[in-house]
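Notes from the 1:1 (GR / supervisor)

We went over the backlog. Supervisor wanted to see one worked example end to end before approving the batch request, so GR pasted a single chain during the call. The sequence is below; no edits were made to it. Supervisor asked that the structure be written out right there so they could see what the output format looks like.
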Amino acid sequence: GNGAPQTAAPTTTQRRPTIAPTSLPSASPSFAPSMQSAAPTNMEVLREERINQVVKDLVGEEVLESDAPRQAALASLQQESPFITSKTDDRIIREHYILRLIIFFMEDQSWLLDETNFGKSGTACQWGHRVNQIVPPSVVACNDNGHIEKINASETRYNGKLVPEIGALQNLRILEIQSSGVFGSIPTEIGTLLALETLDLSFNSLTGDVPTDMGSLTTLQTLRLFCVGVHYRSM
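Structure output shown during the call:
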């Protein structure tokens, strides 16, 4: 007809989104439970199982389950030691666990965080060094094979007991924790440190007897137990 021309309604082109908002990840998240039993190919699972077994063999499963500091040391080892793998030597795992266990038996752990780069990176051989070089150069030292051979926590706020597991540090040559508020008895297990050359526990609040087992430490050259309150018996 002669009426005004009709304008066609505008059309819009619908574009498909490049990523659908409901799309699922191409692979299941690592934390998602698997429908099948985990095959022993997951290195993280193998690593965790390995560390757990080494620690259980060291302290005993019943003791581990009932002791909070020992559980805390195990959790620390699992979470903060990426250098440990499922193939790491058992002795390295034991030594790093014992070192953490010593820490968790301290009443005051803040001095480690204040005065050292303790636990911030790498193995104990790398993070034992003190920030202030005026004081002794390191808390921990290792030999060329990565085994702990020296612990020096003298003149610190240690304020705790010595743990019996310390006897498993078979490469330990020097143990110096003088003037640091150590209390309790000297563990008999120190008598199994057959590489020990220097032991200094002076000026602490130790009690009981010096373990007779220390008489078997044929490599011991220096023994300092000044003003500690322990009693000497024939070794």
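Supervisor's comment: The longest strand covers residues 148-152.
Batch request approved.
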